[in-house]
Each structure stands twice: as C-alpha cells, then as structure tokens.
C-alpha cells in the first residue's frame, strides 16, 4: 500500500511538471505571436501616417482656396466660434471685439504628423495688438510628453484686457468679468479646451 501511495505522488509530480512545461511553451508561443502582431501594427501606423501626410499636402491648396473665400465673408470666424457648441464658451465679450479682425485660422500638422501641430490666427491690423499672426504650437515627444508654446502678444498701450481690465472708448477702463481667450497663447499648460481645438477647428 505504501508503494502505491508513493507511486501516485510521483505520477502527480510528473504530470504537474509536464503541465508547467506545456504552459511555459504556450506562453512563449503567445508572446511570439503578440510580438509579430505589434510589428504589423507598427507597419500599419507608419502606412497610415504616410497616407495622412500625403493628403495633408493635397488638402493645403484647397484650404488656401477656402481661406480666400472666407476672407470675403464679414465676421466669418467670430460667427463660426459663436455658433460652435464648444468653441463659443471660449470667447469673452472683449474677445469677440478682437475676433472681428480675425482674417484666417489655420491648423497645420508638422511634416511628421506624430510630432505635433500648430494653430495660427492671422489678424488684420487692429488697435488691440501689434501682431498680425498669433500662433500656438504643440510638440509631442516619443516619451509621451507635450511641449506647448505660443506667441507673446504685443498689446498696444492700454489695450491688454487679459489682465482683467477692459479698455473703454472714452479712455476709462472697466473690470473684465470673463477669462480672455487670448490668455491661451501664453498658457503653456495643456487644458481640455486646447486639447480639442485642433479637431474642432
């Protein structure tokens, strides 16, 4: 009887070792297949980027043509922002006055689409700031970090309402209740509104 019990324990140990070996081999095979799948996915991503870059170049003249037409429509960008469910929240009353001078808005992906994009706002000469172009740039690193930069707006004397004080025609100033959209250019911290602006615009 004792021999039978020992034999059973040895058989169980052998079966357990065989099962462990089979499990290890199955996991190794699964990892090989997973590595192969990741390689295919990387190739697919590269191909998608190539196509996206190609069509970005094809779209550019069409966007330029569209911008030419948009410039003939009074207050087009102001109306577009105010009519959009998400973007309308971004403009204060003072911002809206400045947006009347907005001539074109352009979102441009970098040559390597994965590395970032810029959003450019081109303004007609106005009495608010010296700049004709305000740009916000988003750069993505391979490590997953985002670096953000923007134009330091050169406000004309007494016209910077991003500090909470709005200019008045009579030279008097009044408190500006809302946050200004134009603060976004100097803000280098990513926020939800700027995350989605690339897609919304």
Sum this structure up briefly.
The chain has 201 residues and is α+β, with helices and mostly antiparallel strands.
Q: What's the number of extended β-strand segments?
A: 6
Give the structural class: alpha+beta
The chain-level mean pLDDT equals 84
The total count of helices amounts to: 4
Order of helices and strands: HHHEEEEEEH
Shape: elongated
Instruction: Summarize the biggest pleated sheet.
Output: 4 strands, antiparallel
Describe the structure.
- This protein is α+β, with helices and mostly antiparallel strands and 201 residues long.
- 46% of the residues lie in helices and 17% in strands.
- The longest helix has 69 residues, at 2-70.
- Residues 173-177 have low confidence and may be disordered.
């Amino acid at each position: 009887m004792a021999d039978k019990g020992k034999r059973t324990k040895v058989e169980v140990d052998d079966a357990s070792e065989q099962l462990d070996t089979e499990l290890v081999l199955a996991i190794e095979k699964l990892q090989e297949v997973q590595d192969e799948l990741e390689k295919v996915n990387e190739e697919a991503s590269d191909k998608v980027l190539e196509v996206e870059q190609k069509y970005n170049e094809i779209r550019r003249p069409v966007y330029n043509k569209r911008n030419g037409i948009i410039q003939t429509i009074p207050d087009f960008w102001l109306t577009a922002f105010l009519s959009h469910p998400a973007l309308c929240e971004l403009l204060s009353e003072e911002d809206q006055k400045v947006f009347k001078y907005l001539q074109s808005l352009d979102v441009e992906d970098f040559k390597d689409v994965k590395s970032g994009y810029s959003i450019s706002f081109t303004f007609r000469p106005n009495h608010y700031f010296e700049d004709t172009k305000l740009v916000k740039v988003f750069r993505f690193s391979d490590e997953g970090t985002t670096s953000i930069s923007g134009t330091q707006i050169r406000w004309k004397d007494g016209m910077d309402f991003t500090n909470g004080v709005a200019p008045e025609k009579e030279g008097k100033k009044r408190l500006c209740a809302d946050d200004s959209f134009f603060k976004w250019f100097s803000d280098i911290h990513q926020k939800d509104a700027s995350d989605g602006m690339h897609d919304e615009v």
